[in-house]
Amino acid sequence: MHSTHHPRIAVVGAGLGGLVCARVLQLHGRPVTVFEREASTGARPQGGSLDIHAGTGQVALRAAELLDRFRALARPEGQEWRLLDPATAAVLPFEGPGHDTDSPEIDRGQLRGLLLDSLAEGTVRWDHAVTGVEPLGDGTWRLLFDDGSTEEADLVVGADGAWSRLRSTLSDARPGYNGVTFVEAGFDDCDARHPALAGLVGHGTMLASAGSRALLAQRNSNGHIRVYLAFRAPQDWHVAAEVALDDTAAVRAHLLTMFEGWDERLLALVRDHDGGFVNRPVFVLPAPHAWEHVPGITLLGDAAHLMPPVGLGANLAMLDGADLAHALITESTLDDAVRAYESLMLPRSAQAARECAEALDGLLPPEGS
């Protein structure tokens, strides 16, 4: 944008992609506001550990001039993968996923904190839940907030995740259940309290799989280990099993029957963890997901391309944010910038969605395949 009037850019959602977009815009002197429904940065846990890939997430962090600070926090040893035999817990030869060798791990909360700290004071407007947008007829938009207030913007960036409130402005697509459920559990201070389990998991991610069942354990910072039991089942599997999801003992008993015959050292990951279980059915958008360009509004990250959680989503969201900001800085008009961004992002995410679906099918082969 080469005119003296900088467009009013509203990013909806203070996730990784929206924050990278805001950071890169600010580095180049562009005004931007991020609207976030949560009340504060610590309003909820930020999820597990992410591996940040050289060709995507690290490219975005370099554009945000945060790569050195990221490296100071990241855990290169966390990219280790160990494949275990479900029946014996023996370590098997394993190439690991097809990621580049330079993909150090960082907790999502640490990475989000790094991005938030890099923004000018007051950039993020907390406790601002956007319920929808209205076109004002001249390519500009009015954002509607749940408290009845409004804001106007020349560009609205839907960085508001899987259940985006803005997606419906561009597309009729809705996330659908893809047949796979992850049930999450966790261990605190694992090295001290469960040294044998910590040794089993190793420095990064441990995987054991048989048929349409898999057990993953992922090391996070501060000795925390996250465990995921993955399986193919109807979304309401717990109803058929007559198990209440908040009844930890009942969920545990059902999962143990599901993983019957597995080595006891692996089943300890199901038996001995702290706290309850979290049911995480996998939702995905149809792939490819695309839309007819609409002036003044676009999407990034999960709002644009929700795909199976096999290590690409956060990386792509950050790259989307950096690419959109770059286009806004370099193209001569706002509309040219959004079109340039969409022509890059949509084919890339369609390809990534195919790769993620294949990776999940490799981990948990569909019945009869």
Automatic annotation (TrEMBL):
Cross-referenced Gene3D superfamilies: FAD/NAD(P)-binding domain
Instruction: State if Protein transport is listed as a keyword.
Output: no
Q: Does the keyword Chaperone apply?
A: no
Q: Where do the FAD-binding domain residues begin and end? A: 9-198, 297-351
Q: Which GO terms describe its cellular component?
A: cytoplasm
Record-linked HAMAP family: TetX_monooxygenase
Record keywords: Cytoplasm, FAD, Flavoprotein, Monooxygenase, NADP, Nucleotide-binding, Oxidoreductase
Stated family: Belongs to the aromatic-ring hydroxylase family. TetX subfamily.
Q: What InterPro entries does UniProt report for this protein, alphabetically?
A: FAD-bd (IPR002938), FAD/NAD-bd_sf (IPR036188), TetX_monooxygenase (IPR043683)
Protein residues bound to NADPH? 44
Domain topic, free-text comment: Consists of an N-terminal FAD-binding domain with a Rossman fold and a C-terminal substrate-binding domain.
Q: What is this protein called?
A: Flavin-dependent monooxygenase
Q: What is its EC number?
A: 1.14.13.-
Share what the entry says about its subunit structure, partners included: Monomer.
Which biological process terms from the Gene Ontology are attached to this UniProt entry?
Answer: response to antibiotic
According to its UniProt entry, the function of this protein is described as: An FAD-requiring monooxygenase active on some tetracycline antibiotic derivatives, which leads to their inactivation. Hydroxylates carbon 11a of tetracycline and some analogs.
